[in-house]
Amino acid sequence: MPELIMSEVFDVESLDLQARGIAHHNGKVVFTEGALPGERVRGRVTQRKASYDIAILERIERASSQRVKPPCPYFGLCGGCTMQHLEPGAQVAIKQRVLEDALQHIGKVRPVQVLAPVHGPAWGYRSRARLSVRAVRKKGVVLVGFRERTGRYVADMSHCLVLPPHVSALLLPLRALIQSLSIPDRIPQIEVSAGDSNTALVLRHLAPLSDADIELLKCFAARHAVSWWLQSKGPDTVRPLVAADAGKLAYSLPEFGLRMGYGPNDFTQVNDAMNRRLVSRALALLDARPGHRAADLFCGLGNFTLPLAMRTGSALGIEGSSTLTERATASAAEHRLDGQARFQTADLFAVDAQWLRDLGPFDRMLIDPPREGAEAVARALACLGRGERPGKIVYVSCSPSTLARDAGILVREGGYSLLGAGVMNMFPHTSHVESMAVFA
Predict the structure, then answer these.
(1) What pLDDT band is residue 1 in, cutting at 50, 70 and 90?
(2) For this structure, is 398 an active site residue?
(3) How many CB atoms lie within 10 A of CB 253?
(4) Would 82 be classed as within a structural domain?
């Protein structure tokens, strides 16, 4: 007979990286989605593993003082947000604890100073998003939105509070548009990129569009002031529906007078307001000054490189994608910074100390890797002599665990001190932790 699983009471101690409540019960860890630290909850265990259980929240018997009513009616169903039930300030405090725990337990290091968290807008902040599309034949409808938190279905949503209002307002019109096309069941997703003055929609289509479909897309673009881009296969097939729309996407860094052009499938931060604060804090922590020679590793479009070039007069950006370094080079020329900012393409996951020596000494270095971190760079830096190393390093991270690993290498093997570390709330209401650390 199947095991009869009864509901049990748990005292929640903390949250994990998926924003699930963590409790200890009968010698095992129990993860309960929707439960908050300090709460006593009743939950029903749905999965039993050797070292942990997973439970469904049935009732809150003692609520946290930091619990709030989620303003979004789709919270709990939609997988886009996981922490709307927690007061925003408490969200940031939990993310800071995640970062500190990772540094201590993975990197075996502690920062001299915990940097004050950086906040931004809590709603309408998400300028980049991948919307799933699903034609539900039985109901005769098309759904456009984020996937449900559990399962492969698309949440039936009419608006989204973390998208910019003008993008949120497109969800229902997009449903009607896709339903009117000749291939509604061959369109799996629409990627959104909202720039300062242009919003691009990348339509992924698994079958050719008809001439009538193209006309419908053009009419939609004119009515809603958007640009359509089409993607028939991989990312390299992305093309504007109307050639004149190429080059319209851009975000700004007003502090530096920069307009950063990008393509709809280029990497940019999803939160423009926070990105401006990110750049400002990074340069402040680097203490970049005229005469310094600076390096920006994993430089992307030159988001940090161009501001560094303006501050120091000499900055080298290095990135693995030639598409991005070409775009960054063009941007430097557009801003008349091509004499101060240079770019190279290199695989930064496979570099060594000799490669760094060949670049010449740097006074300042910024490292902004993807989730995999920058282990090869950290080990190369650790192998350099004291006189060859950058005096200061700022490391921007989207993964506390890989930041902690690389911090451990820089401190224990490279002789650096971890002067400070703190979080940037780049993704409010989610468990994503963006952070920054400074070494000297």
Answers:
(1) very low
(2) yes
(3) 19
(4) no
Of the residues 72, 78, 299, 398, only one is catalytic, namely 398
The range of the structural domain enclosing residue 61 comes to: 7-67
Residue 208 belongs to some domain of the structure: yes
Number of domains in the chain: 3
Widest distance between CA atoms in the chain: 76
User: Mind listing the pLDDT tens digit for each residue in 34-78?
Assistant: 999 999 999 999 999 999 999 999 999 999 999 999 999 999 999
Q: What is the 3-state secondary structure (H, E, C) of the chain?
A: CCCCCCEEEEEEEEECCCCEEEEEECCEEEEEECCCCCCEEEEEEEEECCCEEEEEEEEEEECCCCECCCCCCCECCECCCCCCCECHHHHHHHHHHHHHHHHHHCCCCCCCEECCCECCCCCCCCCEEEEEEEEECCCCEEEEECEECCCCCECCCCCCCCCCHHHHCCHHHHHHHHHHCCCHHHCCEEEEEECCCCEEEEEECCCCCCHHHHHHHHHHHHHHCCEEEEECCCHHHCEECCHHHCCCCEEEEHHHCEEEECCCCCCCCCCHHHHHHHHHHHHHHHCCCCCCCEEEECCCCCCCHHHHHHHHCCEEEEECCHHHHHHHHHHHHHCCCCCCEEEEECCCCCCCHHHHHHHCCCCEEEECCCCCCCHHHHHHHHHCCHHHCCCEEEEEECCHHHHHHHHHHHHHHCCCCEEEEEEECCCCCCCCCEEEEEEC
Q: Same structural domain for residues 218 and 236?
A: yes
| Domain containing residue 29: CATH number | 2.40.50.140
Q: 225: domain CATH number?
A: 2.40.50.1070
* pLDDT value, residue 387: 85
